[in-house]
Amino acid sequence: MSSHDAVLVPTVPPETVDRLKPPKRIEGGVMSRPRGVVITVIVALLALAWVFPLAWALVNSFRDYGYTQTNGYLSSGGWTLDNYRQAWAQGDFGLHFKNSMLITIPAVLLTLWLASMVAFVLARFSYRFNLTLLGVFLAANLLPPQALLIPVFRMFREIPLPMFMSDSGSMLNSFWSLILVNTAFQLGFCTFVLSNYMKTLPHEIYESAELDGASVWRQYWQLTMPLVRPALAALATLQFTWVYNEFFWATVLLQQGDKFPMTSALNNLRGQFFTDNNLVAAGSVIVALPVLVVFFALQKQFVSGLTLGSTKG
Amino acid sequence: MSRPRSTGALGGTSVPRSTIATMSATRRSVLRGMALSGLAVGGSGLLAACGDDGGGASSGSGATVKFGINEAQGSGPAYDRLKAIADAYTAKTDTKVSLNAVDHNTFQESINTYLQGTPDDVFTWFAGFRMSQFAESGLITDVSDQWPIDGLGDSFKQAATASDGKQYFVPISYYPWAVFYRKSVFEKNGWAAPESKDDFMSLMDDMQGKGITPFAFGDKDGWPAMGTFDILNMRLNGFDFHMGLMAGEEKWDGDEVKLVFETWKSLLPYHQEDPLGRTWQEAATSMGNGDCGMYLLGTFVVDALDESGDDLDFFTFPQLDDSIPADSLDAPIDGFCVAAAGKNQDAAKEMIKWLGSAAAADAGNEAAEAPFIAANSGASTSTYSDLQKKSAEVVGAAANIAQFMDRDTNADFASTVMIPSIQEFLKSPDDIDKITASIQEQANSILG
User: Which residue, of B144, B182, B247, B382, has the fewest CB within 10 Å?
Assistant: First the structure.
């Protein structure tokens, strides 16, 4: 192929280069200076409005409840680390973090694996139902989970599991139910993104692979999967945060306090009547940390992965 | 407030009251509430049928009873007491108790899925309509064969009885709603707890004259003002009318209820302004630091003040109508039920009977920093604070005990109709006719 490429490269005569050069760039891009200032101010305000509650919570998580209750939240003082100590102990976050990981990691891996297989077939083979199939996967994503609560709840209640898998004897009250539900709800989106991404892979490599006698499985596992790694990394980041943050199903399907994931366990910091907001703020910061860590660690993949696959397909 | 809802990792809201699957304003919880009510309607019959399957398992020595409690591990005295009670039962009968601790609000909001899913054998619950509702739909087990229980009087038996005349509940503790004040503030100003309506009015006028707002008031969370409605209704229309109204047998747009709102409106100038922007904790603080003279709330008011409560005292709301004695009050009762879908019915019934005993209450109170007020008259009061001793006296002397609006009536009605309606009234106290008409309209569809 490469021998042909050289011919196709358009050559520009050296003397025309100057003429084709764009006019000198004005400071501020296409925007004039005043418009740029307005935009900057608006964006700064929006950013402030967005960051303010987070910062406010963060600041107050370091303050003593008694102090803020007497002097009001606008005062300054009463600094302490006790909220974090107490939140960690009272919320039993060690146990609940483990629960969250037991749910999140298998769910993310399972989702990515299943979605990549569906996406591979949708992207590489043309069946008449391809589009319909993709549509069905996406449509399921549009259903609010709340609408499915009753059917899913009843279904899980009727599915028996051996006692060594679930001590309730059914899907209810077990991690299996949460892993499955999360996988099911995230599958549509992942399939959509991955199939679009896979369509951007050059068709020629599959032709060569076919000629070399690679089976479909091998084309999937050894050819496609390594090439879609950026998309997988981006999706893994997203999925991790989504599944980790998931609250609704965990609250409904689990009924045993020591099985709750982090998000539900945050409620342990609220009393029957009395809520120490500073303590809850400290707990929320702790709960949000893993997501932030994953996000910053995988930020690069995340940004590049989001735009990849968006131009073709 | 500093409620950091927007971090995204946050699960619930910090609305400090469980009663309220549907009341807080997040979309998530509203939808969940709706879905759960759907479940309640749909699934009960089926489940009650499955419940008997695993029954008849062994009880006594070596058996295990699953015990669901509505206090998260490490959440303070309430958890410590229940844990101690469970341990004491194991020590006494050799029955293992496997504890399932879920935080109060989550437990209450998920109660429908809990009872229809894989519930524990015995679980913590409330007396009154909330219990009766589950009895009617067959989700909890009839424990009338365990009654009477030594030391639990008729009023408690009444509170444990569902609409079919059978008992489905065993009480363990309660707390009263009353008007709290600082002893030191009252002493300094030479005030005394009012005995009559005239005393009461002149006390409030005197407070205002001295630049102190008579009543602290906060209704940001929606439920605290229900306490004011309850007590005014009981004082103005009597206990029987109040309970009839809660059950949907009386009219919400009748003259009686209008009288309650009219009276309330005339009392509003004695309350803190803009209650909708204030949580009960903030209101309690303004009573605690002397800005306000009194606060109508439950005994949990102590929690917000970050102190022992030695400088607090209370009186029951005075008589307002000459023909109606001031002998009824809100005193929500907590206790236990047996889940119909629980696997070990016999052992559960045995345990619940013991839970009503004085020994159970004593075991709980000895183990925790702060005791509860035991329902059982035989329980020791040696660990009680002065406030609790007085609470026990006052409730003991009361002729009628209500459970608080959100426990005495349909939970959906309380949270989706009454909370917004009362808040609407506090916003525009002149719209009483419109508000009562709207309550009645919604009561028709919910309470039937």
Answer: B382
